[in-house]
Amino acid sequence: MKLNExxxxxxxxxxxxxxxxxxxxxxxxxxxxxxxxxxxxxGVAVRSFEGGQMPIYRRLPKHGFNNxxxxxxxxxxxxxxxxxxxxxxxxxxxxxxxxxMNANLVSKKLDGVRLLARGAINSSINITxxxxxxxxxxxxxxxxxxxxxx
Length: 150
Hints:
Helix content is 19%, strand content 13%. It has helices spanning 56-59, 78-87, 97-102, 134-142, and strands at residues 74-77, 94-95, 113-116, 126-129, 131-132, 146-149. The strands form 2 sheets. Strands 1-3-5 form a 3-stranded parallel beta sheet. A 3-stranded parallel beta sheet has the order 2-4-6. The mean pLDDT is 92.
């Protein structure tokens, strides 16, 4: 095979249809748009128009609400903190958001870090987070630690 012998497969390239080029071509005169009316004109957009019937997006009820002020927290559970301490990724003395990110327990800070009470914790830890559940705070204090909400 030589460079000058390379060509596309049969039917790989199709030339565009040239409309409105006279009656002989089969798509002349009205260019395949039929007769008159809105869709025969240029610049038409009738996507959601249902012929005067109430459109579906107006017939269906509105549902839900997106709170623009809602905060999204990165979640950390007690069992994952305990695993990180056992593996030596975290020190139990002072745990901050930065140390959680360094230990790969949190990938993004988002609006802060929230501590949840899944699993159990044995170590006495001092942790500073942006939010925590009541049961997580109780579990940490029961283990002899302290939770500080920043």
